[in-house]
Amino acid sequence: MRRGIIFIMLLSLLMSGCGAKNEPSTLKVAAAADLTLAFQEIGKRFEAKTGTPVVFSFGSTGQLAEQIKNGAPFDVFAAANVQAIDELKKEHLILEGTEHVYAFGRIGIAAKSDISVRTLNDLLKENVKKIAIANPDHAPYGLAAKQALQKAGIWEQVKNKLVYGKNIADTLAYVESGNAEAGIVALSLVKTSDVHFQLINEAMHEPIQQAVAVMKATKHREAAKQFVAFLNSSEGREIMKKYGFSIPKEQ
């Protein structure tokens, strides 16, 4: 009787172990907030193709990079600028050879339909009382917005109107909710929004080079590499282009 119970227990443990082994590991991807719409679609396609579920943590590039430095268990980091990846590389936190620029982002002026804002100079209008931009201290899209305002020669004039979003998705929410009459946001996020949007000339700011890398501490190295490969595949690139990103020529 006792031997029979032990045998059943061992068999149960063996079966549960086999089940866990066959169960796909969930991939944790830290991604800049401008990627929210594009990566949600990419994640679904990737899971359908590979069977590997993907969980995204969207936020500002600077804050996500800090989380990684503090030991956050991400498998992949898709940043909104190449500098964040370079910094993590210097600290030996990324898997050598996996880092590269995967896309270029664009910014533009967003405003509710009842506010006539088409150019940067329109932000000086009296009826534009609040202008939302992502915090330039840790959000690449916020830094690009600041550079554009400086190049237009109106930074000092609009400084008192500015409200800072913690990331670029938060910034768009300010405009959509009416808490800001206008904002400078990512092209990639306005596809499903009802705001009026006007692109800003790329010459007004430094290129928004978005870089990705597999984290050195990942326990799912092959799945992480597969995700990055899918991002760079023709299918992945088409999704990125659909949301307004341009792809580096060498890709």
TrEMBL record:
Entry annotated with the keyword Lyase: no
GO function term, MF aspect, one: tungstate binding
Pfam families (UniProt xref): SBP_bac_11
GO biological process: molybdate ion transport
Alphabetical UniProt keywords: Metal-binding, Molybdenum, Signal
Signal sequence, renumbered to the chain: 1-20
Residues that coordinate or bind molybdate: 61, 168
Matching Gene3D superfamilies: Periplasmic binding protein-like II (3.40.190.10)
Source species, domain of life: Bacteria
Presence of keyword Oxidoreductase: no
Record family assignment: Belongs to the bacterial solute-binding protein ModA family.
Protein name as catalogued: Molybdate transport system substrate-binding protein
